[in-house]
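Try this one yourself first.
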């Protein structure tokens, strides 16, 4: 006769085998036993609906359990290698939702996410795979733990989420050491470091480019004019500035601060001092949010010069707000291009 072993324990509800008063007419008729000896009392019809693997298995006569023909309480038992936590999360998402929390990703779920997704792929729980991907993509943890979500996305082969998580890492400086979580050991930290540094170099270059006269260039005309008003930015205007604001107009500044030939156009002095500091911040955390925050915020010494200038006191603040948005948009586009190249 088939053996009827005593299991280590039953799984938590709703897989404990206890009679559910709301579904007493739909009793579980199958048992999945985890690799660590926990019995999950499940319904064959739900497994067939959720999993192509189980649908095919139950379609075969005798395809109810493993070769040892284990049974318990009259139910066939199939032993799987996955541990209790992985099977519980896999089956929980396979079953109909009873609360909103059913599809909410918690921090603790990250510890077994890769294992759950791997099991869903192994047993062909196609819907569960889609749900898990959506849960991870829409999780607020993307902003809180972007490095870890990047690693998980790489391990699960979610290229779009990998790029999204990589872009989220740009809001913080690059760490000197590999972050301390298990998944990071399985992916290339050097790849992320190269991406972060590339974005930093490019963001700095874009910021410093704004002190170059490109009024006759079709490539970046917005460095000269306000996109909201179509007027030249206050710091690029020739006339009406105070002498303290313009400084020595014959000593002009060019790309990355190098001096250029006499007669070239250059922004006013306070803006030439402002941009290198913005560029330095972008070099460390090259996110578009950094550009918008730092570009619109000037130092106190520059504020005094602006307030004393007839042109800048009237227009500079509004122009800086517009410039910050334009700079952020340009850097965001640059970061996305680099992410597409690095995380295909």
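Now uncover the answer:
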């Amino acid at each position: 006769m088939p053996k009827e072993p005593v299991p280590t324990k039953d799984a938590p509800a709703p897989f404990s085998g206890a009679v559910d008063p709301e579904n007493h007419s739909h009793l579980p008729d199958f048992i999945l036993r985890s690799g660590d000896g926990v019995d999950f009392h499940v319904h064959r019809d739900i497994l067939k609906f959720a999993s192509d693997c189980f649908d095919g298995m139950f379609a075969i006569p005798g395809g109810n359990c493993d070769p040892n023909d284990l049974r318990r309480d009259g139910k066939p038992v199939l032993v799987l290698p996955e541990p209790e936590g992985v099977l519980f999360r896999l089956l929980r998402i396979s079953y109909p939702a009873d609360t909103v929390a059913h599809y909410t990703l918690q921090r603790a779920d990250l510890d077994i996410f890769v294992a759950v997704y791997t099991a869903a792929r192994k047993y062909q729980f196609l819907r569960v795979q889609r749900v898990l991907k959506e849960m991870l993509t829409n999780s607020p943890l993307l902003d809180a733990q972007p490095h870890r979500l990047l690693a998980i996305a790489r391990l699960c082969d979610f290229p779009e989420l990998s790029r999204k998580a990589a872009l989220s890492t740009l809001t913080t400086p690059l760490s000197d050491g590999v972050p301390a979580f298990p998944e990071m050991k399985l992916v290339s930290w050097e790849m992320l470091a190269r991406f972060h540094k590339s974005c930093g170099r490019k963001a700095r270059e874009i910021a410093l480019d704004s002190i170059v006269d490109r009024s006759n260039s079709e490539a970046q005309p917005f460095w000269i004019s306000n996109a909201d008003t179509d007027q030249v930015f206050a710091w690029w205007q020739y006339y009406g500035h105070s002498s303290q604001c313009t400084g020595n107009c014959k000593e002009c500044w060019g790309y990355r601060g190098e001096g250029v030939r006499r007669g070239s156009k250059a922004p006013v002095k306070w803006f030439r001092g402002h941009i290198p500091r913005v560029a330095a911040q972008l070099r460390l955390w090259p996110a578009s949010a950094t550009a918008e925050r730092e570009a619109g915020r000037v130092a106190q010494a520059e504020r005094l010069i602006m307030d004393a200038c007839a042109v800048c006191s009237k227009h500079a603040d509004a122009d800086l707000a517009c410039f910050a948005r334009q700079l952020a948009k340009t850097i965001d586009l640059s970061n996305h291009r680099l992410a597409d190249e690095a995380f295909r």
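Discussion: The first helix runs from residue 44 to 50. The chain has two domains: 9-127, 206-342.
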